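Hey, I'm writing a tutorial for new members on how sequence and structure tokens pair up, and I'd like a real worked example in the thread rather than a made-up one. If someone can provide the structure for the chain below, I'll link this post from the tutorial.
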Amino acid sequence: MASMEEIIDELKTRRDEIQVKIHLASKELQRDFEDLEGKWEKFRSRAGIDRTAQGVASAFDLLGEELRRGYERIKKAL
């Protein structure tokens, strides 16, 4: 039978590992969000300028979808 000290040590180790994983995931999500912010700025700036061009409209749609997926991924991770 494990001693109280062993149980406490095991739980502390698990807790510490989870804290590190949460911290790293948080940093990764923050970088993902920052990448999306750059794409968002491009999306916004081009939205009013390039609406009429067919090729640009397709690219605009793709970028919009990429932003939606990225934001949804971050939202689910939080």
